[in-house]
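JOB MANIFEST
job_type = single_chain_structure
chain_count = 1
residues = 373
[input]
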Amino acid sequence: MAGQRTHGTGGVFRRKKNGKYLPNWYIAYYNRNGRQQQESTRQPLKAVAERELRKKLDDVERGVPVEQSRKLRYENIRKSLITEYKNNHVGLVERRNGKIHGLDYLDEFFANILVKNITSPLLREFIAKLQSGELQRIVRENNPKEKRAVKPMGNGTINRVLALLRKAMNIARKDALIHAVPYFPMLREDNVRTGFVETDQFKTILSHLPEHLHPLMIFLYRTGCRVGAALQITWEMVSGDATTMMLPAKIVKNKEPITLALTAELTAVLKKQFRQTGQPVFDATNLRREWASATAAAKCPELLIHDLRRSDARNLVNAGVPETVAMKIGGWKTRSVFIRYAIVATKDIQNAMNALEKNDGTLMEPDAKLAQR
């Protein structure tokens, strides 16, 4: 064996066949259990083999089980991701039987791939297939029940899908199954949505929605609550007089419980409903279909239900509610995220300019104004 080292530090060597050395170098090292491992680097350069050996020795020193890391596949870290989400009651994972939006694209592209082979170049290839719509087409063909249209994916959505994989790899790193996570080439998001619903517009949409959806829609518009959280609210979370509602940490995205004071209008609506312990407060039957129909009738088909959350942020600011209170109501944990939601409309800017001029008065003397004409 060539390139001998001190026992325990491993070494590089070439094997012989028919009395001649084979071109590729091998490495030998001891794993954390004290067992010797030998594997080919598939490289004819000794310097490259030396680098590979140092990497393996670093893995051992960090406590990474080298053999297990070498065999770890995408499916293994996917399973850990689902388990982590279920344990922490993230979103609607439990209700969706482990189905997370975007996971099907990861499943299709990274199926049976070794985690060690998930590199930045491979991630860029994955991004390209989502941007072209090629991967969406394959997923659609493999799932006859899939109803989503086949179209190129926007940067924001691609980043959310990449974030799932990055989360899975970070879990594996924390579990000491891998020692590093590759660089994720996240995309610049220029397609940040700026939709919001004016009060008169909301009233029009509401008039086109069936009555059973009114309590839910009013609640979303007034509190900025996420749809997923709202649908998990049960009657024991509502006070006896229906004036307050306590949302536990497990259904709030930022994991901070919140007690909401309800508007008189919503209180009156809830008081008329039958209370049944353990049952959801809001009826969301055919929510998406009815919303699409109502917004089309109101001549604003581009609006999303999530735009109600953006609208609440803006409405709270316009009503003079302090930012800290507004953030608490809507469950925004950081000011930077809240500001992205508190969209400023052109009309808001015009009103601000009018108020400024009214407060300060005009800046030019009357004669100066006439001279300019």
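[summary]
The chain has 17 helices and seven strands.
The two ends are 96 Å apart (CA to CA).
exit_status = 0
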